[in-house]
Amino acid sequence: MKSMANPRSIELLDALQAVVASSLLEIAGGFSELLQPLIGHTALVIFTEDCTGRPQKKAGDPAIIDEVTLVELDAVRRSLASDASDPWGLRAVIGGTDRPITAWLATTGALLVLTDPELTPAGGTDPESTHALVGRLWQLVATSIRQQVASAAPAYLLDSRAASAERAKLIADLTDAHSTALESMLAVLRSSTVSAEAARQTVTDLAASAMVNLRAVSDRDRSLAEEPVAAAFARLRDDLRPLARFGDLDVQFIEPPANGRALPGEVAHAGRAIVRGAVLALVEQAGVSRVRVQWDCDGSNLLIQIRDDGAGTLTTDSPGVGPVTARVAALGGTFGVQATAGWGSELTVSLPLDAPLAPLSPASEWGLSPREQGVLALVAGGARNKAIAAELLISENTVKFHVANLLRKVGASTRAELASLVR
């Protein structure tokens, strides 16, 4: 008698396949929909260091996902590593509020958090089995995220570079603003003219603690956004080791300088993907037995050279070269092929470490942040708050806040006047 697969299991596998096949920008929403029938939750938050541009991927209640911070997620990850208590009894500060959570840590280091978890009838009567099942599903999704980042598709690189630039500016602005405010508070509280000693001491301690936390946010964000060039090259060696071990290929590595400027995360990921693609394109030629890979950094660009010992017939139209050039173009880099018959082919790549400056727009004179410029463009196009919130993945209250700031900065009294000024 033939055994029949469980229809529910097939449905779950089909849903998982759809999640892992989705883009990095859609993966949180898809995974949240998959898990809701198993574990009800108000928000799903993913934190992965593989994605330098967008280390957080979120879906659910805007009041939670708009406010969650890297420091909060770091605290959850540390608690999982040090505490093996009941996963259904966890609590943590997420989005600025202490709330019940359940969480999983994949072998890739990626963290998954569900807020206000509730076991559903469809999830079964065994909480431990349901938690273990979701953990295995999360392991597959986390592996998919790492593989997508490793492939460094051009669309991902463009999004990652834009997100990195925006996040860096916002973090810098946030750090400067809060540091100035807190330092001013400390100066006043330490003044000899203030007599409330106990109050002064208490508030001084609170302000000092807030400054430490603020710096921690900035430092953590910086560690996510950059890779030392030597460490990035070491990861490249690990990526190519199986090809050298099992592909009968001699891969020689010319080490980059140990010091120097760190690579932005998207450039490090792209550099590794470009080298992997280029090496595969080279070995598709007949007679290639040795490849030399060299990285260097001149402070402004990541410089890559890859040379083979083949017949010297490689061109930009050769199989496998097209995806490499697309990745280079996505980061505004340059790509060249030089082939000498009988001596081999050499690929040269230059990737700028900094995103190009955006062209000045009519709104530039108003001193708007990247987020305010995005809201302004949608307002000028006639979008209402609900549509803007859906487009930018923020809450309507946040949209209202940005619109109020835009009216003040631009000097307009109504949305219609604001839109007309832009046009």
Helical element count? 14
Anisotropy-based shape: globular
CATH C-level name of the largest domain: Alpha Beta
DSSP strand count:
14
Q: What is the radius of gyration?
A: 25 Å
CATH topology-level fold name of the largest domain:
Beta-Lactamase
Can you give the helix content as a percent range? Answer: 40-55%
Q: What's the story with the biggest beta sheet? A: 5 strands, antiparallel
Number of domain units: 4
Mean pLDDT: 78
Residue runs with pLDDT of under 50 for 5 or more positions: 357-361
Strand order in space, largest sheet: 3-2-6-5-4
Keywords:
5-stranded antiparallel beta sheet; 14 helices; 423 residues; 17% strand; Beta-Lactamase
